[in-house]
């Protein structure tokens, strides 16, 4: 994993004025511990929030800044915070950090937790103050062992400095923070499945309403935010709404900056903090350096395996939610993947759908049975055993598993790349259909779903 400076060929230095998330990073990639973090203005925003701002003012500031969730859904953070109960008699509330970064091709939260653990802690501390939560959990992907080690050390440093625990900064406010490592399930990226897992239950999504703000972990009001989302909070509090909004490019409806990246057979795969509204072409050509010699860009995904495929002619789209929606898919996590011209799309989709099928919690029928069905059809097409009508069946599954048809968003995200791949690369799927003379009558072709 690399994190490149904010500019082609590292010519532009990161600064606090332009890179609120990454300007404190060390050039050697080592973690920034408490002394260095405070020397770089760390916890100044927390001190301001505790000394000079009412709790409701913190919520309003985050809302006015236009901060949205950075985990993929893009829900307005201030609006989510505003859903927490105003009743002061409810004195048990929880703040959960979703650090279960299981989206394929996404590693932005890992970088923040490994190299800037105190930035996340400060973001959670300010958020806890705003939400009146007395306890927080960082629900961490189990495979992120280095992140767990660094976060636990940072928590202990913050406790020793009086920045966590009882009577923080002499305010009378108490906040405990714990690092909880999960068992590794993609579905835990869904906030209610995460809550069930934290409680020791099976990681199934819950029915909503009630929403976590009303009935969350252990039945108490709970707010769940992504790592990158929480890491934006200190800069907003420290430098204000107008400055934060000014970071985005003209035309972007999303505010601030975003950790974006490109992987695949590009010359300079990496992760960069860029303003919302930068074009995908700039990200691909100026930062990722374009394709390696001998390869051509065939397709790309803008933000993880659960986003639709786009073509090279879509690279002029702006990287923000509305900009990517204009070309037919979602921005997702903002970490793009380049697919080169040597890749067979049927094989790629079979691999993706196998992952999504295995990660289904199995709670609802369309997801539990539909995703394995798509895998069986894709395997047959990949091996040249596809039958007439298989592509139409796959497209039918894309519809049956789409938004609003399943209990959570797992299945809609799983079939979005499938539908786009058939749309743009149908001949590759048709090439795997056996000649009509070799076709097996449909009634003689039982499909054992989930086998």
UniProtKB/TrEMBL annotation:
Pfam families documented for this protein: Complex1_51K, NADH_4Fe-4S
EC number: 7.1.1.-
Catalytic activity, reaction form: a quinone + NADH + 5 H(+)(in) = a quinol + NAD(+) + 4 H(+)(out)
Entries under SUPFAM superfamilies matching the protein: Nqo1 FMN-binding domain-like (SSF142019), Nqo1 middle domain-like (SSF142984), Nqo1C-terminal domain-like (SSF140490)
Major enzyme class: translocase
SMART domains reported for this sequence: NADH_4Fe-4S
GO molecular function, one term: quinone binding
Residue ranges of every copy of the NADH-ubiquinone oxidoreductase 51kDa subunit iron-sulphur binding domain listed in the record: 346-391
NCBIfam families reported in the protein's UniProt record: nuoF_fam, PRK11278.1, PRK13596.1
Subunit structure: Composed of 13 different subunits. Subunits NuoCD, E, F, and G constitute the peripheral sector of the complex.
Family: Belongs to the complex I 51 kDa subunit family.
The protein, known as: NADH-quinone oxidoreductase subunit F
Protein source organism: Pseudomonas koreensis
Organismal lineage: Bacteria, Pseudomonadati, Pseudomonadota, Gammaproteobacteria, Pseudomonadales
